[in-house]
Amino acid sequence: MLHVLDHPLITHKLTIMRDKNTGTKDFRELLYEISMLMAYEITRDLPLEDVEIETPICKTTGRMISGKKLAVVPILRAGLGMADGFLKIAPAAKVGHIGLYRDHETAKPVLYYYKMPEDISERLVIVTDPMLATGGSAADALTMLKKNGCKNIRLMCLVGAPEGAKLLEELHPDVDIYIAAMDDHLNERKYIVPGLGDAGDRIFGTL
């Protein structure tokens, strides 16, 4: 299922990120802030359990997250920019990494790195990747995680195109997609329109 998290704060910050005049420092900080806001929403349905505590006044029953183990898995490199924001909200989450890059000739993803926590299959896995363009990289990453035994996976993206969302809904209908904005289409170079350019290059200041 596709969830568009169009909160006014997210929309405002995303508009600044789209501006080609926004520099690397501001782009990186805005992505971090949006990722924190999205993490708040993506974990909204975590189960709670009653616990007894003692306040400075008296004993009482409060509620805490019910032992739900989390993992964040950025798709390198750009996904790192969203993972940091998620970890600010859930600092106890373990971190895995999937290294994929898009071959500019074929527009197909190529795997170069895969490293997961030993108990990844027992965790709610949040995959982070700012751009959902063709959907190829995300689809491959989700397939790898499922082969690793993961059954509870969510995808957190910044900007997407209908083509990528359609592919994931066909290949991974059990994975919820959380996105800040669904854009119009992909251009002939498979870039999202209007998009914000290459997220990895803008995060790290590379060409």
Descriptive overview:
The protein is of the alpha/beta class. Helix content is 33%, strand content 31%. The chain contains six helices and 13 strands.
Short synopsis of the structure:
The protein is α/β, with parallel strands linked by helices and 207 residues long. The protein has helices at 8-18, 24-42, 80-89, 136-147, 162-171, 199-204, and strands at 2-4, 48-54, 59-65, 70-76, 94-95, 97-102, 109-115, 124-128, 131-132, 153-160, 176-182, 185-186, 192-193.
Structural class of the helices, strands and pairings?
Answer: alpha/beta
**How far apart lie the N and C ends?**
34 Å
Strand and helix order: EHHEEEHEEEEEHEHEEEH
Number of DSSP helices? 6
- Report the average pLDDT across residues: 93
Q: β content, as a range?
A: 25-35%
Largest sheet: 9 strands, mixed
The unreliable regions are none
Integer-rounded radius of gyration: 18 Å
What is the number of strand segments?
13
- Roughly what percent helix? 25-40%
Any idea what the shape is?
A: globular
Considering the chains and any ligands shown, give keywords for the structure.
207 residues; alpha/beta; 9-stranded mixed sheet; 6 helices
Secondary structure layout plus pairing:
Layout: E1 2-4, H1 8-18, H2 24-42, E2 48-54, E3 59-65, E4 70-76, H3 80-89, E5 94-95, E6 97-102, E7 109-115, E8 124-128, E9 131-132, H4 136-147, E10 153-160, H5 162-171, E11 176-182, E12 185-186, E13 192-193, H6 199-204
Parallel strand pairs: 1-11, 4-5, 4-6, 4-8, 8-10, 9-10, 10-11
Antiparallel strand pairs: 2-3, 6-7, 12-13
Helix pairs in contact: 1-2, 2-3
